[in-house]
Amino acid sequence: MVLRLLLALLLLAGCASPEEAAQDVKLPPPPPQQPETGLQSAEPERPPPAPAESEQRKRHANFSLVWSFDTGEPVYGVDMGKRYIAIASYDNMLRLMNRSGSVLWSFSTRGNAEGVALSEGENFLLASSYLVPEARVYLFSIGENTSLLWEKRFETQVKGVAVSERLRLAVVGDSSGVVRAYSFTGEPRWSFKIEKSAWGAWDVEMGNGICVAGDDTYLYLLSPEGRMLWRQSGGRRGYFYGCALQEELVAGVTQDRMLYVFSARGKPLWSFRSGFANYDVALSKELVALSSWDRKVYLFSADGELLQVLSFESEPTELDFSPDGKSLAVGSRDGRLYLFTEN
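RESULT FIELD:
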């Protein structure tokens, strides 16, 4: 009996208390969320190191309004380059403006002008318009005498347009859910079909790849050859209305108030919920801009810190940064284009 008592005391002396034992336990990290993708990363991505405290203090966004331009009808297409700002508005007009707010060129479309995109070198302009029952897509060569290279007709509405001089591609997404690529001479290159939905491919943007905002609740990234690299779901009610991409980031916004930011490989990085349905997102090298129909434009750092909120009297629609990230052009349902610059 005494021996058993001594053994019990020795065992107790060699064991930690439950509280002490819990402090020593290290739980394994949860497995990373994997996107639906055609590519597999060789190793998991690591988040960038946290910036130093001095760098955090330098973060800011101080955009202020420089001018606005009244078209008289809602502006739903905006794209900004170094020299030009291209806008599409429901007064059936496409316009090229300079950074001072003067109209340099205009074109009368058949029906509401809806989508517009400038190529990287600002030598080409792709645009769309809609008048029931057909849409039209136009490719222009920009110069001293801006000229129409070709025009195509579609049986469904076209809102998403993107154009690249480097890739020599003009890409359009229509409300049937088909994304089509054409050469600069108008020949079809490839097509890609998203899942069945009411409004199809709502937005298309081009960089090293092609991102597609789908009303089927998916954000897609395609290769320049039209192959799906990955897709991410916004959830059962997460209909994607706008998208943008930079070298390291891809972003999409949804009807149910969400902004999602992903790495170029499709890994979720951060998200934000606005006060109402979102319409568009723009990326610069350092900033993310979100237009929401809560009548606000939100400006974030690339890692998700909210830096500034711009308020509007009407709902902001499409928006775009200048290539240097110092200016922001915002369209609005009140028929105006607003230009903001960072002080």
